[in-house]
Design a protein that fits this description.
alpha/beta, D-Maltodextrin-Binding Protein, domain 2, 2 domains, 6-stranded mixed sheet, 4-stranded mixed sheet, 19 helices, 43% helix, disordered N terminus
Length: 426
């Protein structure tokens, strides 16, 4: 039987209770959800985002609680590539959407979901983010579930105390850094010991604020393996200026940045040891463990003198997809429709600091994120460069090497060569 959790006539009392609480941003704790009937088919949900596992575990319990339709099995540990290779992928996936996931889409391994009404509800500006990666012609292979927006975290109290305005241009950013430095305040907390923090923060923000990331990669793919000096675009030519500015900004970091890891950086920022921190909402929960009352705001990293160039970094934090080889595609569609019900989906985003992907999704209410909402509404955003480069190219390590003193021209030439080598193999 097909079920829609949005239809109150088809939702059991248990599930209606969940939806009411979920709309308020809390989870209903259930116990004794037995579904031992052998007549129920299993549908496997693969969801591996670590911090969201407990939340989805409860969603699965609620889905199973009314005892009809398929029984959802929550898989958090399988090898995704191995499952596809063996012809035994999960029935439904719900995970971060990036270049690594897009390769399954490009090869036609994901089924067409265009007939699901929830697919049509996705805002065009969000769907465009999916289409920036290689797609399979004529298919809607994934449905975005949650958007994560990230920009500079800043300590509002320190900005107020030192009469520093939120910068909107590159020169204003440097002036702000100089003011803090003169006052004995570290302008920027950086954590070079963890390579991913450099690529997702300093590098992604600098590159996304200094060039059109989507256009760059679209043209790069069209060029194939031609990244020579006469090519229209290349890492060496297009990345040089924004990464030069990144290194100029990085000089305002804490003196121990090279030995500081992500956890220590959260602690330092929570203690008020720096005015700015280039991390997204994923850091807020850790910061709050030290100081839940720290007054934090956000602003896009300005990389030009034009305020119209301000953009926030986004990624499709979670997206739903059903493989062509799914063992239970009908059950997967039913589970997907349940998860995509606005009452369920919006509650997840509110609880996990995500932004909605539908035009009618409610805005964020967390005061630490509200300054990014207008940029998300207008589509003034970009996907991070770090999500568009295959993992076989060690982009994180290259960016870490730059802030630790590696030669910029040499690193960018290596990137050109790495990309060209992969293009030739394709």
């Amino acid at each position: 039987m097909s079920r829609s959790p949005a239809d109150p006539q088809r939702v059991s009392a248990t599930r209606r209770g969940f939806l009411a609480t979920a709309a308020a941003g809390t989870l209903l704790s259930l116990s004794g959800c037995s579904d031992g009937s052998t007549s129920r088919s299993d549908v496997t949900l693969y969801q591996s985002k670590p911090e969201a596992i407990p939340y989805f575990r409860e969603l699965v319990r609620v889905f199973n609680a009314d005892g009809t339709g398929p029984r959802a099995v929550h898989d958090t540990a399988s090898n995704l590539s191995g499952g596809f290779a063996r012809g035994a992928p999960p029935d439904l996936g719900c995970l971060n959407y990036n270049f690594e996931m897009a390769r399954f889409q490009e090869r036609g391994a994901l089924s067409d979901l265009s007939d699901l009404p929830e697919a049509a509800a996705v805002a065009p500006r969000v769907q465009d983010l999916v289409d920036q990666y290689p797609v399979y012609p004529g298919r809607t292979s994934v449905i975005p579930y949650s958007l994560m927006a990230a920009s500079v975290l800043y300590n509002r109290e320190l900005f107020d105390r030192h009469d520093v305005e939120v910068p909107g241009t590159w020169s204003e950013l440097l002036d702000a850094c100089g003011t803090f430095q003169d006052a004995g305040v570290t302008p920027l907390i950086s954590t070079y010991a963890d390579a991913w923090t450099v690529s997702q923060g300093l590098a992604d923000y600098s590159l996304g604020g200094g060039l059109n990331v989507a256009e760059f990669f679209a043209q790069l793919r069209e060029q194939g393996d031609d990244l020579g000096p006469t090519a229209p675009v290349s890492f060496s030519k297009d990345f040089y200026d924004p990464l030069s500015k990144m290194l100029e900004l990085a000089a305002y970091s804490n003196p121990n940045a090279a030995s500081l890891g992500y956890g220590d950086g959260n602690l330092a920022f929570a203690r008020g040891e720096g005015a700015m921190y280039l991390h997204g909402p994923w850091a807020l929960g850790e910061i709050a463990k030290t100081d839940p009352d720290l007054d934090i705001g956000t602003f896009p990293l300005p990389m030009t003198e034009d305020r119209d160039d301000l953009r926030v970094r986004v990624n499709i934090d979670l997206a739903l997809w059903i493989p062509e080889a799914a063992q239970n595609p009908v059950g997967a569609r039913e589970l997907a429709s349940y998860l995509l019900d606005p009452a369920v989906q919006d509650a997840y985003n509110a609880e996990n600091l995500g932004f909605g992907v539908r035009d009618d999704a409610p805005p964020v209410t967390d005061e630490r994120l509200v300054e990014m909402q207008p940029f998300v509404d207008r589509g003034d955003f970009y996907q991070g460069v770090s999500t568009a480069i295959p993992r076989t190219i060690p982009f994180e390590n290259y960016m870490q090497g730059l802030v630790l003193g590696a030669d910029l021209e040499g690193v960018l030439t290596t990137l050109d060569n790495d990309w060209a080598r992969l293009a030739r193999r394709s």
